[in-house]
Amino acid sequence: GDGALLQTGTEVAAAVMNNVPVVILVLNNGGWEAIKDLQIDLFGKDREIVSGWTTPDGKPYFANIADFARSLGATAERIEDPNDVAAAVERGFATPGPVFIEVISARELPWTKMHPTGWWDIAVPAYLGETRDDYVNKRGF
Fold first, then answer.
1. DSSP the chain
2. What is the sign, positive or negative, of the torsion defined by CA atoms of 114, 120, 124, 130?
3. According to the model, what pLDDT value does residue 117 have?
4. Quick count: other Cβ atoms within 10 Å of Cβ 21?
5. In degrees rounded to 5, what are phi and psi of residue 40?
6. CB 100 within 8 A of CB 66
7. What pLDDT sits at residue 6?
8. CA–CA gap between residue 15 and residue 22 (Å, rounded)
9. pLDDT digits (tens, 9 = 90+) for 86-132
């Protein structure tokens, strides 16, 4: 996703410098929505904090991952219509070097809802009591 890519974007430069023939499809949901979902699941809607990208006046926005990838020398395009994804992937495989395809995706629950096991392992403090127990039980520990 967009948030994960922007946490470790140096790989884009490495792929360009080494001319790695790879096609990377990045889903852009306008922020760290998996973290937002986790915050809401564990603490409730009132405790969601700075996980969706918004301007100071609260207007949502989407970082332009294609521009970011191009700024580092990669071939890149931004897709807003899901019907255009297959053709973009085909173009990507026909293009030498690293290719980034950014796809704008859903920003809000329930469309962003992650599986109860989550995508990573996080520490949930014991002082959260039943909230922690519920989370741990969903994960199957």
1. -HHHHHHSTHHHHHHHHTT---EEEEEE-SB-HHHHHHHHHHH-GGG--S-B-B-TTS-B----HHHHHHHTT-EEEEE-SGGGHHHHHHHHHTSSS-EEEEEE---STTTTPPPTT-SS-----GGGTHHHHHHHHHHT-
2. positive
3. 43
4. 13
5. -65, -45
6. yes
7. 75
8. 8
9. 999 999 999 999 999 999 887 665 544 554 444 455 556 666 677 76
Residue 34 CA to residue 38 CA, distance in Å, equals 6
Instruction: Using alpha carbons only, give the angle 83, 33, 8 rounded to the nearest 5 degrees.
Output: 90
Q: How far is CA 107 from the centre of its chain?
A: 10
CA–CA dist 89, 127 (Å, integer): 47
Q: In what order do the strands lie in the sheet with 99-104?
A: 23-28, 99-104, 75-79
Query: For the chain, what's the residue count?
Result: 141
